[in-house]
Amino acid sequence: MSSSPPASSDEPARLFRSEDELARLPASERIRYRLVNADCRHHANDNIAAFVRDGEVEELKAEVQAKMQEVLRALVIDTDSDHNTNETAKRVAKMYIDEVFRGRYVPMPAVTEFPNAERLNELMIVGPITVRSACSHHMCPIFGKVWIGILPNEHSNLIGLSKYARICDWIMSRPQIQEEAVTMLANELQQRVRPDGLAIVMEADHFCMHWRGVKDNQSAMVNSVMRGAFLKDANLRREFLSLLPRKND
Ligand SMILES: [Zn+2]
């Protein structure tokens, strides 16, 4: 293992451990060490891609598989003779890291921004975008839809329609809390598009309400974020909300 200094300048200072020492730790400990050293929050819905190096996602998957096997063992499931659960730990690890929580470990999808050459300044609505996520509290699925309203100005950067869905998916592919998820999405779009107004509505079904707990089948949750012109202008807000087809679809 090389002990040469890290190449990138945003690398956290190596306060206590050498690269050699780090290399002997499980990947999750190595990544955590970098995050803690950089004083970087790493809650369930944070993206930590900047702290994950090449090959470490595969190491994480192997770690999660081993721990998941322990969970099955603690549930007193005989995974050796039960052909149904034989490969379950492996499947769940792959599902978490490569699919449903992928948005924690990979950088944001590349998004090309176009200057607003046509000086569009009319309300633009994107949606419904399908949302697949999981709640941070129970790791149960969340299924829903998101609508995004944008009021661009002449200085706004426009992004292709499909990119809204990709950014949304990247943020939702983490254990989430709906109200935090819509705020994260709003921050990301605000930063990129810089519109005069930004509105987001998310309506979702939380399976922890269906599958466990109160077992309520009528429990869709709706959250919205309104910024800039959408906050100040009640007519614009009404126009946006009236164009959402969510009541009858
Ligand atoms: Zn839950």
What's the number of helices?
A: 9
The Rg value, from CA coordinates, equals 21 Å
Main sheet, how many strands, which sense, barrel? 5 strands, mixed
Name the average pLDDT: 90
Biggest sheet, spatial arrangement of strands: 5-2-3-6-7
The SSE order reads HHHHEEEEHEHEHEHH
Structural class: alpha+beta
Tertiary shape: globular
Number of domains: 2
Architecture per CATH nomenclature, i.e. the level-2 architecture of the largest domain = 2-Layer Sandwich
Hetero ligands: zinc ion
Q: How would you portray this structure in words?
A:
The chain has 249 residues and is of the alpha+beta class. The protein folds into two domains: 19-104, Orthogonal Bundle (GTP Cyclohydrolase I, Chain A, domain 1), CATH 1.10.286; 113-247, GTP Cyclohydrolase I, domain 2, CATH 3.30.1130.10. Helices cover 38% and strands 20% of the residues. The protein has nine helices and seven strands; from the N terminus they run ααααββββαβαβαβαα. The chain has helices at 19-23, 27-37, 56-74, 88-100, 161-172, 178-193, 207-211, 229-232, 234-242; strands at 113-115, 124-135, 141-151, 157-159, 175-176, 197-206, 220-228. The strands form two sheets. A five-stranded mixed β-sheet has the order 5-2-3-6-7. A two-stranded antiparallel sheet has the order 1-4. It is globular and about 60 Å long. Bound molecules: zinc ion. Residues 135, 137-138, 140, 206, 208 line the site of zinc ion. Zinc ion binds next to loops.
